[in-house]
């Protein structure tokens, strides 16, 4: 099964999946509203806007597994993201990214190694996975990699330019 086929719920509570984004390059990010890295929302939204017309989307998955930094309800998360950072990219229901209740999407993503060859558990909020239009995870960026990082931008541009 592809990550595009995994059933999800949106922040508004509607049934959905990443299947609605099939054919797009995705940057899948576990997000949190009360984290030192939360300002990355601004850069993520800029990436989303910059590349949307070329078939790209950021996708956010709130997670409360790291220091309880995403304690809000889905409605509170949606309000915060919209009012504080103007987020327009798709956001899904709060999920576990590690442990026995790890969401299916993340069960697939964590098999991808980062630049140091390390796969496995998510380290913290704002870990990023670039997923190609065919659903294959291309590259993994650890939380400290900002949305403005040249390596991340190069990976996005390379995937968008790849023959498909």
Write up this protein:
The chain is α+β, with helices and mostly antiparallel strands. The protein has one domain (3-161): Glutaredoxin (3-Layer(aba) Sandwich). Helices cover 26% and strands 18% of the residues. It has four helices and six strands, in the order βββαβααββα. The protein has helices at 40-51, 74-85, 104-109, 150-161, and strands at 7-9, 15-17, 25-31, 56-62, 128-131, 137-141. Strands 4-3-5-6 form a four-stranded mixed β-sheet, with helices on one face. The protein is globular.
Helical segment count: 4
CATH C-level class is Alpha Beta
Average pLDDT metric: 95
- What is the CATH architecture term? 3-Layer(aba) Sandwich
Q: Element order, helices and strands? A: EEEHEHHEEH
Strand content: 15-25%
Could you list the spans in which at least 5 consecutive residues all have pLDDT below 50? none
Give me the side-by-side strand order of the main sheet: 4-3-5-6
Q: Give the radius of gyration.
A: 14 Å
In the CATH scheme, what's the topology name? Glutaredoxin
Which shape, going by the Cα principal axes? globular
- Overall number of domains: 1
Calculate the terminal CA-CA distance, rounded to whole Å. 20 Å
Class from helix and strand fractions: alpha+beta
Largest sheet: 4 strands, mixed
**Helix percentage:** 25-40%
